[in-house]
Amino acid sequence: MKSDIQIAQEAKMEHIHKIAEKVGLKPEDLELYGDYKAKVKMDVIKRLEDAPDARLVLVTAITPTPAGEGKSTTSVGLGEALNKMGKKTMIALREPSLGPCFGIKGGAAGGGYSQVMPMEDINLHFTGDLHAIGTAHNLLAAALDNHIKQGNPLGIDPTRISYKRVVDMNDRALRDIVIALGGPANGMPREDGFMITVASEVMAILCLASDLEDLKERLGNIVVGETFDRKPVTARDLNVQGSMAALLKDALKPNLVQTLENNPAFVHGGPFANIAHGCNSLMATKLSLKLSDITITEAGFGADLGAEKFLDIKCRFGDLNPEAVVLVATARALKMHGGVNKKELEEENLEALGQGIENLEKHIENMQSFGLPLVVAINRFPHDTEAELELIRERCEKMGVEVALSEVWARGGEGGMELAEAVLRALDEESDFKFLYDTDMPIKEKLETIATKIYGADGVNINNSLSRKIKRLEDQGYGNMPICVAKTQNSLSDDPTLIGRPRNYSVTLQDINLSAGAGFLVALMGSIMTMPGLPRRPAAEGIDVDKDGKISGLF
User: Fold this and answer.
1) How many other C-beta atoms are found inside a 10 Å radius of the C-beta of residue 122?
2) How many other CB atoms are found less than 10 A from the CB of residue 490?
3) Per-residue confidence at 106, pLDDT binned at 50, 70, 90?
4) What SS3 state is found at 507?
5) Which run of H or E residues covers position 378?
6) 3-state SS class at 390
7) Distance CA 361, CA 395 (A)
């Protein structure tokens, strides 16, 4: 069996000019990064503002397991299948982070015969967007500490700085550090820490900005800490929003690439859904909607994370109107949710599968609560039995949901025809899309709504200290923002060990932070960390490059 990278390296790519031509873009509309990837110029986006929008389809999934679900692969394969049917379709995905590529999770370019290309470039440095985001973020951090060193005219309280530094690598040693050691010349020593770049508010801002002016405005709104008299301090107070925007002016432009079957795709922006809002850039999605008849986009991790944030944050800010949802599941993953060990997944186990399907049913309920037509895509594996597939189908049909088998990993677009036909039927249904909550609701009420309606919790535990922090945020005028919950991706709850469909539990708010530039509040649930660590045997140990520059071991 060929690996993902072997399949990718054997594929025949077309010049990006030819790919662009398929959606009406001319060579002069592009800024080339080699022969196979390009950025679309900003004036193209302005030129197409009045063009009609395509139909928007969201791809999400059940709660992730080590068995794999295949959201990105399904997104790519569905796009390939729809193009085979003569439907002018584009996909809009996130950029991978380097950290997971060298850790354990892997990349985000799809897999098998449903990938975006050039795979190695996309999973490594690509067009430099993540590096630009990290540099802009750390510029603000440097300016903040320099301001304090140079006399601190704003009166910033060093003990109330909330803005950490970032690096795009899993490095647990940087979670909590002390900076400015070595004497007065190095500044004022204080506790600090690093987050992974995809958790940066600058990443969220880039993915939600509508243009360069909006980007700069949002960057200026970033709150980095408080003064001694408890007033917020912003990037605008430090006067670096312009230089940050200058670093990001090219990163803001959507990246155009191609699929394995030479169909156009956007890969742009990359916030994680467990610690950020988990969606590709709003600009890339909107541009795709102008250039296609159907746009397929995905949201990270399960529907309780990425899909909820896509619908309640990205669609709210971008005035997007999704018309259908594809919910990806595998029999293997559902058996794990039923308690089966990963080593025993190839054996038929209808009892465990029946228990695990409860996780799928909860995600179905979640998506139905938004008023969207839904298709369950079963990402088929070779050892799935007919009895297992039929059990999933029966349970979904009882909930009024159509099920389609997907074999896009093994067969590309041809393996997604059944799914594509089901999606077209879903698009023929009437959509009644609505948000989960009103942003004018009190912060605690919004948290309770997400926890009870999406996670299935009984409520939210909030201590007195956090209650006071929430009141302070509301008093400062930040209470009417949507909520971006940071929690484990491995459970509907905030406890990664509670698999399946947990019941009779509460989630615990550990902290709530302001992302004023992005326009939302980040609620940290459970023991979620914003800087991952490497596993005992990281993927980096198996990656290599030969004397000719050919990479191996990258998936």
Assistant:
1) 25
2) 18
3) low
4) strand
5) strand 374-379
6) helix
7) 8
Please give the average per-residue pLDDT across 470-481, as a whole number: 96
The sign of the torsion formed by the CA atoms of 87, 88, 92, 93 equals positive
- Confidence at residue 104, expressed as pLDDT on a 0 to 100 scale: 67
pLDDT of residue 105: 55
CA distance 472 to 126: 41
Q: Please count the CA atoms within 13 angstroms of the CA of 118 that sit on its side-chain side.
A: 20
| C-alpha span between 517 and 140 (Å, rounded) | 13
- Measured CA to CA, the distance from residue 553 to residue 94 in angstroms comes to 22
Retrieve residue 142's tokens: 């440097």
Q: For the chain, how many residues are written?
A: 555
pLDDT in tens, 51-66: 999 999 999 999 999 8
With a cut of 70, say whether residue 107 has pLDDT above it: no
Contact assessment for residue 74 and residue 297, using Cβ atoms and an 8 Å cutoff: no
CB 327 within 8 A of CB 60: yes
Task: Provide the token pair at 292.
Answer: 């296609």
Distance set, CA 300 to CA 63, 102, 194, 283 (Å): 10, 19, 22, 18
**Residue 523 — φ and ψ, nearest 5°?**
-100, 115
Q: How far apart are the first and last CA of the chain?
A: 13
Between the alpha carbon of residue 505 and those of residues 236, 443, 455, 460, 508, the distances in Å are 42, 21, 10, 9, 10
pLDDT tier for residue 496 given thresholds of 50, 70 and 90:
very high
Q: Is the pTM of this model over 0.85?
A: yes
- Mind telling me the catalytic residues? 71, 73, 94, 105, 273, 301, 381, 409
Q: How far apart are alpha carbons 88 and 79 in whole angstroms?
A: 9
Strands (E) in 12-163, as ranges, are 30-32, 38-40, 55-61, 89-93, 110-111, 114-117, 156-161
Angle between helices 212-220 and 201-208 (to 10 degrees): 150
E strand or H helix at 281, and its extent?
none
Pairwise CA distance, residues 371 & 433, whole Å: 5
pLDDT (tens digit, 9 = 90+) per residue, 1-28? 788 888 888 889 999 999 999 999 999 9
